[in-house]
Amino acid sequence: xxxxxxxxxxxxxxxxxxxxxxxxxxxxxxxxxxxxxxxxxxxxxxxxxxxxxxxxxxxxxxxxxxxxxxxxxxxxxxxxxxxxxxxxxxxxxxxxxxxxxxxxxxxxxxxxxxxxxxxxxxxxxxxxxxxxxxxxxxxxxxxxxxxxxxxxxxxxxxxxxxxxxxxxxxxxxxxxxxxxxxxxxxxxxxxxxxxxxxxxxxxxxxxxxxxxxxxxxxxxxxxxxxxxxxxxxxxxxxxxxxxxxxxxxxxxxxxxxxxxxxxxxxxxxxxxxxxxxxx
Length: 279
Prior knowledge:
The protein is mainly α. It has a single domain (9-278), classed as Mitochondrial carrier fold, CATH 1.50.40.10. It contains 9 helices and no strands. It is globular, with a radius of gyration of 19 Å. 42% of the residues are buried. The mean pLDDT is 87. It is a multi-pass membrane protein. Belongs to the mitochondrial carrier (TC 2.A.29) family.
């Protein structure tokens, strides 16, 4: 599928990235909703399972409630992914092919994600709060007003450090793994990449996503605590100490299966769609 023959080729990754993000964010929002509720601090909230949260949400509201937080998710993901893919493409074109080593690809992935995160970060905070069971009576506008009235503009950047600590290595590890696996597949004559392109693309994305999700899981849990209950968890150090004291190291694994499942699905779908749109 050709993105557009009338548009400059430099804009194709921007449009393809945004389009793939819109589709994947909408499809997999329920997984993000459930992950946030599994991860959020449990003081005053009974510990619940994926099944009980899903059942309660559907019974008390409707199945559409599982998509709560979709609006800020789209505001974050669509421009963020468009910028991410655009920057990756720019970096790939600027760096000679001979210098695109595994390490360089990792740095490129991290840099592109870092810039994209900074551009759309406030929506990450709003999304997390809408998904949390602590803010069930508030809508997006109410949360924006609350954050601004209490913390000012800097309040929208609560949890930035753990988010960068999660997303930079995730994107770095993911992109270098993706490029490496893609090179292996494309040079392996026993694997008919062209004939089974979608299957191969999905496998590469899933494998890279699993590795990156595992390495960055602790930062994701810390981010959720900081964004959902910033008054109780004023900084990363306090949050880390609380989790270790209360749950032990296993506490950093909270929501991992949901996150890994979602991230690998998102990565596989987004990169497959992205590559398809550019073809």
